[in-house]
Design goal:
By secondary structure, the chain is of the alpha/beta class. The protein has six helices and seven strands; from the N terminus they run ααβαββαβαβαββ. The chain has one domain: Rossmann fold (3-Layer(aba) Sandwich). It has a seven-stranded mixed β-sheet with strand order 3-2-1-4-5-7-6, with helices on both faces. Bound molecules: S-adenosylmethionine.
Length: 199
């Protein structure tokens, strides 16, 4: 009997064939097509970046005049000369500040986060951790994203998701806040991407 592939397997095979480290790249591509996130010369911060497919895509989009900084708990193999990678927990504010000082970056043009907690198997716990991480990304973006810059954050829907969305909308730092799904997400995934602009 011939082997059957689901559409999700196809994303992974396509990523491998096109030299990307993860199928997640097609999520960023779709978001970039819809919101025009990336431009040549940009300074981009990618939080939760391993294994690095978003870094690969962003590196090409910003070009030699731009720069991409990736952070993850996991080690990330070198990507390109315009990408620097760091290994630490993004909830550690002191490490974020030190890294940006060392990189000589005050403000960035774009904050991306495809961050996901390591799954515990308990749906509510994973969802809660995902929202906690989203708050940590928002805190970094609030301090370091330029006015009118986009912030993109993956978060799992459920539990306290509505509260997170309400907090973002009322915080006063953000405008044009959208919660959107992308085609490359697994069919039953609860992940959504929050896309917003800094005031
Ligand atoms: C879905 S993966 C990101 C995939 C990436 N966008 C790509 O295209 O290769 C989510 C990542 O979030 C990272 N992560 C989870 N919690 C983190 C934390 N507190 N600090 C830094 N990275 C974290 C995980 O280690 C994992 O590599």
């Amino acid at each position: 009997m011939p082997k059957r592939y689901t559409p999700n397997d196809n994303w992974s095979r396509k990523a491998a064939a096109e030299g990307y480290r993860a199928r997640s790249v097609y999520k960023l591509m779709e978001l970039d097509e819809r919101f025009t996130l990336l431009h040549p010369g940009m300074m981009v911060l990618d939080l939760g970046a391993a294994p690095g497919s978003w870094l690969q895509y962003a590196s090409k989009a910003v070009g030699r005049q731009g720069k991409v900084i990736g952070v993850d708990l996991q080690a990330i193999d070198e990507v390109a000369p315009n990408v620097s990678v760091h290994r630490f927990d993004i909830t550690n504010d002191a490490k974020i500040e030190t890294m940006l000082e060392e990189e000589e970056v005050g403000y960035v043009d774009l904050v991306l986060s495809d961050i996901a907690p390591s799954t515990s198997g308990v749906k509510d716990v994973d969802q809660w951790r995902s929202v906690e991480l989203a708050h940590a990304v928002l805190a970094v973006a609030t301090r370091h994203l330029k006015k009118d810059g986009f912030c993109v954050i993956k978060v799992f829907r459920g539990g306290d998701f509505d509260e997170l969305l309400r907090d973002i909308k009322t915080a006063g730092h953000w405008r044009d806040v959208r919660a959107t799904k992308v085609q490359a997400s697994r069919d039953r995934s609860r992940e959504v991407y929050l896309v917003m602009k800094k005031r």
